[in-house]
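Honest question from a wet-lab person: if I give you the sequences of every part of a complex, can you actually get the arrangement of the whole thing, not just the pieces? Trying it with mine:
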Amino acid sequence: MIKPCFLTEEHHLITALKNPKEKHMAFGTLLKIYKERLYWHIRKIVISHDDADDVLQNTFIKIYKNIDNFKGESQLYSWMYRIATNESLTHLKKQSKKQQLSTSEYKEQLIMNLEADVYFEGNEIQKKLQMAIAQLPEKQQLVFNMKYFDEVKYKDMAKILETSEGALKSSYHLAVKKIKLFLTSN
Amino acid sequence: MRNKNLNHIKTTGFTVPKDYLYQLERELHAHIIEDDLKNQHIKHGLKVPENYFKQVDAEILSKVKQQKPKVRLFHNSFYAYAVAIAAVLVLYFSIFNTTTENKNEALTAELIKDYLISTDLDAYDIAEILNEPELLEDHIVADPYDKDQLENYIIENINLENIIE
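Yes, you can. This is the full assembly:
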């Protein structure tokens, strides 16, 4: 579940991040608060740890470089989640293009390699679940991962993915239905 | 006589519908999966190297220290809009002039505009993307328009830093 810092704390943090004298220290605080949840959000999209590490670092560098552009129209965490999501999807697209595969074929390949991945400790059903998720359209993958694994509330997800709660609920139910079908027929 | 026959009757005489046991197994399996999914019993199974979260802070902080302060090109969204429109026009004319004979196949300003709109870029981003129209043209107008090529070009070459809020 996303637990952003309290609004007043967030306000102070943003002010400090925009102040050149305090920026570096405030950024350290930001890293401490959000690095793990952003990492897991990214990791579930890009699958491999090395890729997740690269994307996480790029995400935070972009946050650092662009914090002055953050207008406060959304909450800080949803802004950062959006950057992390964009970075992850762009990374997947780049990698799949390099290998001349579609994004879903590339992701399927990543999951097939999970058994050899030292940073995967899942069993057969967990691997199959990852495979089932990879078959979903991009948006349903995001919604399923956020709801199922991270228990993100639809309200928060709506801000991050900039869509309505109703659309997210139907995406999730559709995703669960497809996953169930995939798991039982495989 | 009857008692003797009893010794030879080894079956109950009951039968099951064809594939019943196979179907039962499948249904039970489906039920277990449904229950696991519903109760979120299946975890993702991914893990991180030991101490990763302790070490990654230092790595990121050292990388951001190397970042130079960003100089904003446009402080005013109206100006950014104007530049974006101008850039689109420049691009339009440069492409149109070089591809009049083959414009059905070539990348046109309209196609670029549609593409940029579909990617939800704001005026500032569009202005940044199009501030070097010749470069864009060199890369993608040489060949007939190809959506994948255009997408690839944009992913590889365009600064997406501002596609954020």
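Two things worth pointing out. The mean pLDDT of chain A is 89. Chain A touches chain B through 56 residues (CB under 8 Å).
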